Fold:
Amino acid sequence: MRMRKKKHLEDRLEAVKDYLFISDIKDRNFKTAIKEKEYLDLDGWFEKSQPLYLEIGCGKGKFACEYALANPHINFLAVERTGNVLVMACEKAKEMEIPNLRFIKAGAEYLEKYLKPNSVDRLFLNFSCPFPKATYATHRLTHRRFLEIYKRIMKKHAEIYQKTDNMHFFEFSIEQFSSAGFALKNVSLDLHNSGFDGNIETEYENRFASLGQPIYRLEAYLREDNDD
Structure:
């Protein structure tokens, strides 16, 4: 069911404009839209020049806000395509006065239009939509078509951290990472009972864990023999 547009959404987005970049692409074909680059001036946007961490699909911003606050030595860029949701994340960051957190309203397929190659130090995929129907597999954020985009904006030794509650999506992701030249480490089939230290929960994670559902997690990095 489509989410109802929030009242005064445009005014609320305008009020957090210092934290937010809104992609305004008319071309629905991302392959042609990304050809003309509009790289963001991240050094001018953030207060300090620091390693860049990226979360794709930040939702209401719980993870992004807590992670940025706990790690002032990095700059955190959170991406969400839905304005209704993203505005709450931006308002939270503004209220908490988080200096090293910024947001982009855009789909993941357009990221390399705005981010320079080899610029991302770490990438988070937290509870991405699993798109359970096989016909929608290419929409999954761990499908190889997205992984190839991430590879172009990631630094050579950058890593992808994924968390999900969906076992089938997790298995699919492992297959896709492998086919795209990634190796895996710190794979967990039950994160909350694994003894993992320093985990920051998302809104979805808190809900699923409270129901006793296992949380799956992995870290992916490019193999040194990867020639892509």
In short: Residues 83-96 form the longest helix (14 residues). Residues 39-222 form a domain with the Rossmann fold fold (CATH 3.40.50.150). The CA atoms of residues 61 and 89 lie 4 Å apart.
